[in-house]
Amino acid sequence: MPNKWTFTIKPIAELLARYVGDGKGWIDPFAGMSSPAEFTNDLNPEMPAKYHLDAFDYVDTLEGNYKGCLFDPPYSIVQVTRSYADIGLKSKLGFSTNGAEDPTGGFTKVRDKLSRRIMLNGLVISCGWNSSGFGKSRGFRIIEILLVCHGATHNDTIVTVEHKVKAHLF
Description:
The protein is of the alpha/beta class. 20% of the residues lie in helices and 25% in strands. It has four helices and eight strands; from the N terminus they run αββαβαββαβββ. A hairpin with an 8-residue loop joins strand 7 and strand 8 (157-164). The model is unreliable at 90-105 (pLDDT under 50).
């Protein structure tokens, strides 16, 4: 079954155990409740993350390069609205859905900034409803895709593991 806490889903937890290990040197800008990353952020101040910033702003607090990044934001604007409706923070995108602003900082813009923080040969593990990940234009190559079927009418969760093979391209 699907779970709001993606990293607790058994096949995804197993994949993370293989790639992330103890989480040292890993960052997670949308950490939620169950992130194994050492450096965590979640906009919701009730989550056990070290920081509670807009993801776009969180990346600006990072210094140096990191082994990897877990990228598991809300998968749709509907999820954004459900996840952050009560927080009331503004975002860098400035668009709204039913009066609620998107607090994620814009996934494309966050990926652009994060890609500069991942060391050469580092990894990014992206979760969502597509396998786009960080992509070739940011210097990444897909090494594994995990498709997790949740049955019935639930959307599958797609986990894309990418390896940084080139220095930042833009």
